[in-house]
Amino acid sequence: MIAVLKPSATQEQIESLTKWLESRGLSVHISKGDFCTILGLIGDTSQIDTELLGSLEMVDSVKRITEPFKNANRKFHPDDSIIDINGLKIGGAHFQVIAGPCSVESPEQILAIAQSVKASGATILRGGAFKPRTSPYAFQGMRGDGIELLLEAKRQTGMPIVTEIMNASHLPVFEHVDIIQVGARNMQNFELLKELGMTRKPILLKRGLANTLEELLMSAEYIIAGGNRNIILCERGIRTFETYTRNTLDLSAVPMLKELSHLPVIVDPSHASGIARLVQPMSMAAVAAGAHGLMIEVHNDPSKALCDGAQSLTPEQFAEVSEKVRKIREVIK
After folding, report:
1. pLDDT (tens digit per residue) in 8-24
2. What would the pLDDT profile of 25-47 be if each residue is shown by its tens digit?
């Protein structure tokens, strides 16, 4: 349920109403906009008399929200959420490009890629330290050592880093990671999401291979329910009957998520198709669809990559994509 307050509502009135609602066992989220204040009521609202609440002088209207995701709902938070990552902002009118290798392989590899993608316009460095692989015999990542290499690349380039977490027990080694990524396979690992809700680090939440948008937003709801509102949604393609591409990039998810939620939405065109030559057109299309950012895999020698070389761009290819993305953004502004 949401209560939209009139512009004339005073701070004293808002605090008094909030205390009364909380005394009824409800959690109240306050969202202040330019023209009104919205109180989002979470909990058993069946005991609240909507007519009585709506009759209060300070209340403009009262509405019940039918969607199961409450905190992630744009009705609760009409303005776009802006996530701050060490001074870099994503969401609203702010756009960021995340780039780097699928997996961290060596000090030389991660530093060389970090320097090249930064020179081409990337603002955040990605790299997998813990790798969820379909086969138990495939390269599983450098784990804690990989995070140390990412942190060294951060020290030398100044770029914030994002890397994927597999298990809540790994949280101590993520202490200095700027953005924690929840991969597609863990999108509904609810115990992990609860633990991440108790942190205040930005969380990059990827849509699962066969999950609906509502399920993605409900996963975000788990994190927000724990108190962490710093969430970036990521569309990375879903599994369909198509076999020519690794996954099918659902670009309709971008405007739909932006309509349903206030959380920023980025697109991962690398995992979406699994084919390097498709990354450029899909990146351009994602920007045109309104994405707040891109997440692109780049490797200095894709043919020798230990993970996902087929979908990785070379630094030169990334530079070309980055330039075309810049031009598309200029057109749609």
Report:
1. 899 999 999 999 999 98
2. 898 989 887 778 999 998 888 88
Q: Please, what's the b/e burial string for 302-314 (b: 16 or more CB within 10 A of its CB; e: otherwise)?
A: beebbbbbebbbb
Residue-wise over 90-112: b if at least 16 C-beta within 10 A, else e? Answer: bbeeebbbbbbbbbbbeeebbbb
Count of C-beta atoms within a 10 Å radius of residue 71? 22
Cα(240)–Cα(40) distance, rounded to whole angstroms? 37
Structure tokens at 246: 């690794």
Cα–Cα distance measured from residue 310 to residue 305, given in angstroms and rounded to the nearest whole number: 9
Q: How far apart are CA 183 and CA 131, in angstroms?
A: 10
Sort 50 into a burial class: Cβ within 10 Å, 0-12 / 13-18 / 19+.
Answer: middle
Element (H, E) at 90: strand 88-90
